[in-house]
Structure formats: C-alpha cells, structure tokens
User: Fold Bifunctional diguanylate cyclase/phosphodiesterase from Micromonospora humida.
Amino acid sequence: MDDRYRPGVEGFVTAWATALHRAHYVPITAGQRHRIVSALAARLVTAVLADPARPGDGQRIGADLVAAGFGSPEALGGTIAVIGARLPVALGIAADPTRATRLNDLLAELAAGFASAAHDRSLREQDTVRLAALAARTQAEEALRVSEARFRRFATHDQLTGLPNLTRFTEELGRLCSAAVPVDRVGVCCLDVDDFAAVNDVLGHQVGDLLLREIAHRLAALTDPRVDLVARLDSDRFAILVRDTTCAEDAIKIADRALATLAAPFHVNDTEVPLTASAGVAEGSVADDGATLLRDSEIALHWAKADGKATLRRFDQDRSAADAARYRLSAAMPAALHRGEFTAAYQPIAALRSGRLAGVEALARWRHPRLGLLTAARFIDLAEHTGLVVALGRHLLEQACRQAGEWQRIQPGLYVSVNVSVRQLRRNGLAGEVAQILDRTGLPPHLLQLEVTEQTVIDLTGVVTESLAALMALGVRVVIDDFGIGYANLANLRSLPLHGLKLDASLTRPSAQPVRRPGARRPATDDDFLRIVVSLGHRLGLVVTAEGIETAQQAHRLTATGCDNGQGWHFGRPVPPEEITASILAQRDLETVSRDTALPAFPAPQR
Assistant:
C-alpha cells in the first residue's frame, strides 16, 4: 500500500472494526478483529486503486466478511456506511468520478457476495440446528424458552428503569378486568413529573435518566398489598395499578402517597433536585373496560396539570362530558363564523341622573343550529384559546358599528361599547382595523367605546401601549371593564389615555359589614367605598359606569354616589337590535308626553 494512504486507511480500519463490534458480537479479541478488518481493508483498497478493475473482488470480500463471523444485516449495514463515508476521504478519491464509481460497484458486489454467503451460511446453520435438535431436543427447547423469556421481558419492560411498560400494564389491567379473576374493583393512578423537560434541558439527559431510575425505585417501593403493578408508560409518565379497591378513595390514598414520596428532594451527582408530580385517578368495577380506566386516569392527570400541577384529580364523568362538549364547540366555531352564526345582542347603558339611554354594549351570541342561542360565556374562552377570537372580534365589531350607525338616525349620539380581547390588543394593526371598520360603517369614532380588562393594563409593554394610544388618537373611547376585581396598576391607570371605568357588578351588591371592635375606627360602608371609587375615577377625568344594577334601589344608591352611567337588568337585558330600536322609540314618545320623571330607567325595570 502506498505510504501516503496509510494514515487515512488506518483510521478507516479502526472505524470499520468499531462498527462491526457494535453491530455483531463475534467471540474474538479486539486484536483479532482488527487484523481481520485490516486484511479486508487492504484488499478493498487494492481493488479500488487497481488498474484495470478486477471483477469479483467485492463479492469475495463480502463472502470473507461472513466467513469471519460478521454475518448479520447490521454488520453489512455498518460496513457499507463506514466504507461509503470514510474510504473516499482516506484515499482522497472523493472528487475522482472514476474511482468513486468503482467504489460504488465494489459496494454493490460486496453486498451481493455478503448476501449469498450469508444465505449459504444460514442454510448450513439451519441444517446444524436440525441435527442438533435431533441429537439434543431438550437442550434446544430450553434455549428457545430462554430466548422467548428474554424477548418477552424486552417487550414488556422498560429498559431504562426495569419497570413494566405500557404493554405489560395494559395486559395486567385487562387480566384484572376479566371475569376469570376474582377481583371486583380496580383503580388506576397515572402520574407525571412536573416540568421534567426543564431537568433534561438544564442538567442534561444523563441526569434525567438517573432521576427516572430513582423515581421508579421510589414508586416500586410503595408498600401496600393492593398495589398490583407499578409501570413506566413513557418518558416521565408512570402508572400504578391498584386491585381490590372498595371505592375511589382507596386509589386516591395510594396516589397521595406516591406524590408525597416523589416530593422529597432527589440527590444526583451531589446536586439536590426538587421535583413535584401530578396524578390522575380512575377507579371502577372490573366490568368496565381496562383501556377506558387507563384513558380516564390520563384525562384526570391532564386536569391536575391544568389546575396548577403538584396535585391529583379524580376522574369525573360530568367534567369529562363538559370537556368533550367544549371541544366540539371549539371545533365547530371556525365553520360557524364562516356561516355567519355569530351575532350581537345589545344591553342598554343608561345615564343614571336622567335615566336616558346613553349607549349600548354589544355582547357576542352564537345562534347554534342544535344548541340554540349561546351566550359569550359558552364560547369566548374557547375562541381566546384557539386564537379565533381575533376574527370573531373583528366580525362583531363591524356588526356593532354598522348597527350603531343605523341608530344615529333615531337617537344621535348613542354610542356602542364592544369588548376587545387581550389577543386583539397584542396584535399589530388593531387601530388600523378599527379605522377601516369605522370608515366602512360611517360611525363617528367618538361613538365607539372599546372595553379592555384590568388584566390588559397590568403590564403595559410594546404593542398593547401602542394599540391603546393609536385607538385614542382615532378618537375612540377606551374604558377598563370589570374594574375592581383584577390587579390594575394605579400608576398605569393614572397615565393611560382612558375615557372611563366600568365597575364590576360585585361592587354594586351589598357586602357583609365588618364587626366594629370597641375603640376601633368606624368601618366604611358599601356606599362610602363606592363614593371613593367613583371619586377616584372622576379625579382622573373618567366616566364611571356601574354594571350589575338589578333593582331601582341599587340605581338610586349608585346615583347618590355620583356614578355617571348604569348597566344591568334593571335597565334592560341583552336583546336583539330591533328591541333596542323599539325601546328608543318608546322612550322618545314617553318624553314627548311627560318630561317629569324622578329617576327614569331605560326603558323600564325588567322583571
């Protein structure tokens, strides 16, 4: 061999020998394996560089590879991969089309020779097996049983932790749920380590694997005669099978113990790693389908994760049915929006001192073809979660502006209030969309009021601030909705370009007055509190509207506190636009007859 190729070829030989060692066990020493591979590599190099090419070299090399004991498909795959990747570089022929073609031909010959020799060897081995079976059937059958047992364990146990896997867990659950086993009820506890991905990301997968082994050890050490099986289902998800339960509480107690044992800190490589886990529990009669119990426990685990983690939840059929119904609604929403099933109902907003209609709030409604008219509480959260709230909000905003434009002909100055979601505010271009809608509908900007939640103004950054400023620059009113129940930053409240506040309905209801201790300062009354809140709004130059006014007494109270506007069932429930039109006309006729009303309500108290 030319000395200039020797360093590269030696590296190639080492890589080839390593690949064969990993792919196929042969009872020889590393030195023997290296000598075999060196001889084959020398022949291969000669065949690649020879002029002219000698047919059959590759077939003989492939056959000799099998003869050396490396006759598995993995050995062939590793050989072809190493030769194709390393030999062209070692010989410096990567850019030589002729040599590269010859190498490809040699690889094809090698594979053909390997396959032929492996086939012949397989036939010989089969004959040997048949002869051995005739001579020592008992020994052969025992070997087969051992092999099957190993395969069975491989198929039914997790290789990292040694625990039973999902296959084994499902089989045992099915066995307990069969009529042949004298067990009445069983429970399934499904556990998942909280935020385990962060452990792998920060500490590395090696530490993660050590933790999983320790988690498996702790769970397997749970001592209770009813714990039939502890399994690792996948990744950081485990399951406990509990037999002979009398009620769900039996399985819950075991799940509680499992969570407690996992809550104790772990120590890996001199590092303390605190972990928590969540669990879902399902329990039922053995007459139930085992797969259903496992599925139900996983659903309950999902609830535990959604409810804050580090806790457990028991499967509840009603909650599951509600989740399924919500999913069906969520899936149906895009098509419903396309079909125009979403519309708006309008609730009056009255000026408290005069009782006149000042504006209306547009509230989303869904005319569902099967469920009837659905209020926003049934679907707005779903729309927010899926992102459809952006398109839905744009649709309702245009509908409300168009309707408000029509009302200007019979009551000029009537404004319409529309809710804007956090997703909408966090999108670039909201103000531009609003400007286009106002332009298309002809509604003056000051007659559009957009309601944002307190949550929106907790942390004003970037797009939200820009959107609010751009909306106010258009002349659109912006108010904070449900004020008093969130966490509005008062500094933000002072600096924001707002038009008003809408007090949450909880502020208008009487509260339990604190007991006055002897010598203590007189506690403030509900009216005192409302006056302070209203005064704060007025000091900031804001119009204050009270929601949830249901009685004339509440309306009088809010008027006395100085509140500007009121909204609630006392003034009218959300109704279709034509009913608002009828009420406007009725109010106009009433004012024509008599203008002397102590505290008129629009259009009249609703009972």
